[in-house]
Amino acid sequence: MAKTIAVEYRVHDGPDALAHAAAEHFLEQAQKSVAAKGKARIAVSGGSTPKRTFELLANPKEKFLQAMPWEKLELYFVDERTVPPTDKDSNYRMTREAMLDKVPLKPEQVFRIKGELPPEEAAARYESTLRNQFKLEGAEVPRFDVLALGMGDDGHTASIFPHTAGIHELARLVYANQVPQKDTWRVTLTWPVIIQAGEVFFLIGGKDKADPLHRVLQGQYDPETLPSQLIQPKNGKLLFLLDKDAAALLPAPDASGKGKLEIQR
After folding, report:
1. In terms of residue numbers, what domain contains 128?
2. Which of 46, 64, 106, 162 has its CA 20 to 30 A from that of 223?
3. Listing from the earlier edge strand, what are the strands of the sheet with 200-204?
4. Number of domains in the chain
5. Residue limits of the Glucosamine/galactosamine-6-phosphate isomerase domain (predicted)?
């Protein structure tokens, strides 16, 4: 039976406007979750666009630093490169330098993937962390309140790359994914975990993303080639925060910059 995914996209003028919109969204969703249940569990991705957002969240000249309920947050990572936390390629290092060193989050509120360990061990340890923090038993899956994704120009998301084994992993929460096209390993949340989140959104900017985004949303369903198509949230809603370059091949948004699609999967 076909499943309908309601896709909303919001188009912004450029990188700064996009980062600001993402910061607003993080704040809104965190406040909403804290009001409903007393805490917000947030999973973030790496990349240049999230970096701008994290810098805004930590900027004392912006409202976010004071408005964010930092003491009620738990911060997790969607994926990580197999490098130490001090390495320039580390998602954790980028997040720490852009935000964590400047906001009132205690170390015990931040849960990183230990990319310095052998990949399988790093994945097993992070899965154990999730099971402990979410008090999971058996086949239960953690449910993040907010989960932010990016998308590569090859259609990958998290560290689930085209034609890699991570596409087919259904049983584990965290997977050590061999990525031949990058000649490396990555440690990533699996897509069955990602789609359980209460709020899943993509943050995408740049001209190089226009064609793959168009194919992900309006092309033939081929997740082996376009793994971002696997992200079909259980709640039936999916949000894309975009700049004009990334949105160039999508149907034109309305005057407020919002567009909608219904996708059958």
Report:
1. 12-264
2. 46
3. 110-111, 73-77, 40-44, 146-149, 200-204, 237-243, 4-12, 258-264
4. 1
5. 15-239
pTM: 0.97
Decide if 173 contacts 131 (C-beta within 8 A): yes
Contact by Cβ (8 Å): 194, 232: no
Mean pLDDT of the chain: 97
Is the pLDDT assigned to residue 2 strictly greater than 80?
no
Token pair recorded at residue 20: 């600001």
3-state secondary structure the chain: CCCEEEEEEEEECCHHHHHHHHHHHHHHHHHHHHHHHCCEEEEECCCHHHHHHHHHHHCCCCCHHHHCCHHHEEEEECEEECCCCCCCCCHHHHHHHHCHHHCCCCHHHEECCCCCCCHHHHHHHHHHHHHHHCCCCCCCCCCCCEEEECCCCCCCECCECCCCHHHHCCCCCEEEEEEHHHCEEEEEECHHHHCCCCCEEEEECCHHHHHHHHHHHHCCCCCCCCHHHHCCCCCCEEEEEEECCCCCCCCCCCCCCEEEEEEEC
Q: Indicate whether 3 belongs to any domain.
A: no
The predicted model gives 235-253 an average pLDDT of 97
Q: Which of 170, 191, 166 is nearest to 178 (CA)?
A: 166
Summarize pLDDT for 85-112 with one digit per residue, the tens: 999 999 999 999 999 999 999 999 999 9
Distance CA 215, CA 74 (A): 34
